[in-house]
Amino acid sequence: DGGEEPLFDEGVDECRTRWLPHDADRKCDNCRRRCFTDDVNSPYYFDMCMIYSHKIKATSSPLRKIKAHKTRATALHRRGRGDRNRYHLCRECCGFLSKEEAEAAATKEEKNRLNRSRFDWGKLWPSFYWDLLVGIDTDSGVPFRHVYEASYLWRYIPQSIRRYWLHEEIFDKDGDFFGCTEFNPPSYFRDRTDELQDFALKIKSYTARDFLNALDPARLGGDPNDENMNQFLLPDVLCPWGCGEYCHAAVPMNSSLLIQRHLMKVQLNLSGFFGHDKLYLYENSRLDYIRFDKEGIDTVLMNDDWKVLPSVLLVPGKGLCALCCRHHASSSSQRRLYTHPPKKIENILSSTRPDCLSHCVLKPRVASTVQGKKYNTSMQAMAMLDVAVVVVVGILAIDRPSLFYCCDCVTCKL
Question: What is the pTM of this model?
Fold first, then answer.
């Protein structure tokens, strides 16, 4: 089951947790991640350790996928029956599942504090994303991928971390996620980790060229329409409450409840201390935060190259977090009752015309008195025609709202 066979000396417990060197074939036994990079400076690199089953906290959370034993003797006894007595865990799962040495002599209050810290999002996020793919609703007993299509759940996994799990059997020909790759179907979330790190390094360099590269790369002589010419200072981070925010000013937040808000047919397995009791904070977020394929995507200044998308950021110590604007970062602002107006079609520009907000609106018109002319055959017939005209121009049904005021019914002449 991996690792070296432990040696036991008198008075020395060699069954301690050990950190292991990087191995491309080694994967975490709890979250099933396999590190796809050997660059220790990469934000997607993680360390792994070997831990024994009697050193694992027997928490009742469904996010724990490995067995725990109370004592070393029990672990060795169960090993004879085929159970594993040691596992490989990533750094995040080790912080989530390993027993704290201080728990042995801790008071009840201290144990509660230690248990609460193990459910921090920074330690829980790999297990949550893996459970989103293979987990089961504890109330109904139905797997999530049987309620929602597997390809739909895969879209909630950012593209940058998909390689962690592509080696698993669920992506094989007979698996539920067969056909899902690193790029298809495209993710609903855009990872801004590398962009923000590159921006911060350029600013910290204190050189004029790097300043221009970070703030306005087009001034260095490059093609402003080049796809590789990144425009970082744009409010292209979509807040769950509908705002647009700059990436460097956005605030990271726990994304598990945000995903639960859009997967209401199932009850996801969340943290025991920041779980469904906090869902009310997200009930007032916009339902069109996640845009389907046929729905329009917001852009900055109607430029299709500047899309405003849901974004995530991998923060050291905090995990993979969703980004929200600075005005909705606190619980007091999130739990307010917000009125979200309907989304306009094709653009997000402001307009004073009501036909940009609704598909069918009432527009008052002035009906002038019909006067008899030389070509009129009957005043009674003209009176009837006048009533008909008033009804037609009183209600204007539009198929494609625009910013321009137009009504062909009013300008036409009889």
Answer: 0.75
State how far the Cα of 20 lies from the Cα of 14, in Å rounded to an integer.
15
Bridge pairing between strands 18-20 and 48-52? antiparallel
CA atoms within 13 A on the CB side of 52: 19
- What is the DSSP pairing of strand 319-324 with strand 244-245? unpaired
Least confident of 190-194, 367-371, 387-391: 387-391
Cα-flanking dihedrals φ and ψ of residue 194, to 5°?
-65, -40
* Average pLDDT value for the chain: 77
Q: Any idea of the CA torsion for 51, 94, 48, 37, to the nearest 10 degrees? A: 160
CA–CA separation, 322 vs 158, rounded Å? 11
- DSSP tag of 306: E
Contact at 8 Å (CB) between 285 and 258? yes
HSE, CB side, 13 Å, CA atoms: give it for residue 97: 35
Phi, psi of 132 (to 5 degrees): -60, -30
Rounded to a whole number of angstroms, the CA Rg of the chain reads 30
β-bridge partners, 136: 143
Give the N- to C-terminal CA distance of the chain in Å, as an integer: 89
* Residue-level pLDDT at 162: 94
What are the tens digits of pLDDT across the range 187-205?
999 999 988 888 888 888 8
Report the percentage of the chain scoring pLDDT > 70: 69
Cα dihedral 138, 284, 190, 252, rounded to 10, equals -90
- Sign of the dihedral through C-alpha 333, 335, 341, 347: positive
Spatial distance between the Cα atoms of 333 and 106, rounded to a whole number of angstroms: 37
- Tell me: cis bond preceding 240? Omega within 30 of 0 counts: no
- Dist CA 201 CA 212 (whole Å): 13
- The torsion region of residue 252 among left (phi > 0), alpha (psi -120 to 50) and beta comes to beta
Extract long-range pairs of 192-197: CB within 8 Å, 24+ residues apart.
192/237, 192/247, 192/311, 192/312, 192/313, 192/323, 193/43, 193/160, 193/312, 193/313, 193/314, 194/43, 194/160, 195/230, 195/232, 195/247, 196/247, 196/248, 196/313, 197/43
Q: Which two tokens stand for residue 12?
A: 């020395």
More confident residue, 114 or 409: 114
